[in-house]
Amino acid sequence: MLIKPPADIPSSEITDKKVYLNRRQFIRTAAGTALAAGAGVIATEKLLGAQQPAPHGRKLVTKSSPLSTKETPNTWEHITTYNNFYELEPGAGNGPSRLAKSFKPAEPWTVSVEGECAKVGKINLEDILKGETLEDRIYRHRCVEAWSMVIPWVGFPLGNFINRCQPTSKAKFVEFTTLLDPRQFPGQRLPVLDWPYVEGLRMDEAMHPLTILGVGLYGEVLPSQDGAPLRTVVPWKYGFKGIKSIVKIRFVEKQPVSTWQKTAPNEYGFYSNVNPKVDHPRWTQARERRLPSIFQNRPTELFNGYGDQVASMYTGMDLKKNF
Ligand SMILES: Nc1nc2c(c(=O)[nH]1)N[C@H]1C(S)=C(S)[C@@H](COP(=O)(O)O)O[C@H]1N2
Ligand SMILES: [Mo]
Fold it and tell me: Which of 212, 234, 240 for mutating ligand 1's site (highest number of atoms within 8 Å of CB)?
């Protein structure tokens, strides 16, 4: 239906929001480029202060990373409408994007740092980002349910943040926890998982240069359905190891129990490294479906293709036992 604009509203106010934001972005970028040259501090300002508009959210200042894959990324549309985020809606598909508006990440976003480290306490995302240079990291993403994508994340090495927390010698693992808030997360009103969602990494995995804390997508802040405002991305592991909307980071001596391990210990292990030879009890992991293809005809790669960088962390380990 076409609605004639009332005569008293200037046409600039009824311009499509996307067009409007693009235009503003264009005007601002011209002024911003000179400043953007190197400083991570500027990125922080742009993320939480200056609020430069982007086509869907706020723009981030980033630099490209040599650790990116050369494969063509999936579109913004794909990455933000085919999701897995049980807090919004259980199952993979467009549910999380339809319900995304129910979750608006608090500003400031506070993360509690706990356990075996010198810097125990609460820290705001703004301060976590201080001094960091945000990078574009184009990574392969492999869900345990055999679909895959290529995603241009924006983030920085988790190891940088861990170092700033000054873990003690007892810190052997890092445990992450998602926000618990059933008022914003309709999925948390259902007893499908033992909320809140918890994940963990061994210290060397957490410190690995490929492991990032993600804050954006396609040069913009993360939309809610992709785990705003802060998530982990671990590209050689199945997607569920990338925990969304993190509010707690705890350094521990004992291996944490992740939510999926707790839910179905025979189906999901702690390591969850992508492995074509270790099938899920209910389906094969030998092949994958690269969205938007409907065919599951692409061979799955050991460690999702990141073996050269990560295999040495698992030498001597039985990957069938430690699945
Ligand atoms: N808190 C939380 N994190 C989560 C999930 C979830 O349900 N809750 N789903 C996981 C799964 S199974 C996958 S495949 C990825 C999907 O991330 P994406 O929707 O951004 O592609 O998020 C992971 N992180
Ligand atoms: Mo997944």
Answer: 240
- In the CATH scheme, what is the code of domain 11-314? 3.90.420.10
**Contacts of 269 by beta carbon, 8 Å cutoff, 6+ apart:** 261, 322, 323
Decide: 84 in ligand 1 pocket, CB within 6 A: yes
Angle at 155 between CA 101 and CA 220, to 5 degrees: 45
pLDDT of residue 49: 46
User: CA 227 to CA 216: how far, in whole Å?
Assistant: 9
Q: Domain locations in the chain?
A: 11-314
For residue 90, which atom of ligand 1 is closest to its CA?
7
pLDDT digits (tens, 9 = 90+) for 55-65: 999 999 999 99
By alpha-carbon position, which residue is closest to atom 6 of ligand 1?
A: 85
Tell me the pTM.
0.87
